[in-house]
Amino acid sequence: MLRGRTCVAVLLVAALTSIPTTVAIGAEVNLYSARKEKLIKPLLDRFTKETGITVNLLTGRADALLKRLQAEGANSRADVFITVDVGRLHRARVAGVLQPIKTPVLNQAVPQSYRDPDGYWYGLSVRARPIMYVKSRVKPSELSTYEDLGNAKWKGRICIRSSNNIYNQSLVASMIIANGEARAETWAKKLVANFARSPKGGDRDQIKAAAAGQCDIAIANTYYLGAMLTGKDEAQRQAAEKLAIFWPNQSERGVHVNISGAGITKSAKHKQNAIRLLEFLVSDSAQQWYAEANNEYPVRPGVARSATVRAWGDFKADSLGLAELGKYNANALKLMDRAGWK
Ligand code: FE
Fold it and tell me: How far is the centre of ligand 1, averaged over its atoms, from the C-alpha of 169 (Å)?
């Protein structure tokens, strides 16, 4: 009986999924996305409604999807790869799974610093990685720069996740670019000496630990704070409310920022549809939805931010071309290792 039911279900699913291809043969695009389905699917549905192009979405973990793209090679069904952090977009380019494209629409919508100079990938949203502090124990006047987090006054007071996290690798890459490798290493050693605990957990866990009194400073991407503030989990909301954002390095290079982004695969069989999808994702309305869905910053200038993001105020972002962070990723990783950053 159970087997019979399963068969019917399988047949039904097969019948349903075959409908779009019979309706519009070829009008499809295959997307491998490291972003969660809820952060991208509603936008893809709108794209399909506007263009008639079906998007076949495969979501997975970033590193696994990149490995899969490499293993599949020219036979990959993927046309577009979406992932987070420029360190990973750079790895995808170096791995040879992307192809360069340039269109006036993309180049106009995405500022130069948020796209690959050769067109291998384009930013879709911007995220900042500032300093977050516990309001009851730290005054904003005590804070200034990332560099200052190496000051002995922060001994035992800083929570940050491990060095195998790509966000931290990109942050350290930005320190190497700004200050040179030797000074960045000295800083990293001092920072590690100021850790409140051995790094563990994700960005949310650093915010929670700070709220719980284990540290006074947390380094985290802004959208995690946004998700905690606006989510349904009451304990997380209360924890997040104990912290505030400090925008560091404002009198010089600015806050470290990164992107989520996309590239067209080398194996793309639906290249024109893939280009249309990317162009759609940087359109005004898509940008607003995409940035709002995860409390990120639109990559396209002039697009409205979510109310939560607006409340954090304006800041000066590091204007560094993000492709540089990818180039320094390997150096950053080795440096963190030498500094004893677990
Ligand atoms: Fe994240």
Answer: 13
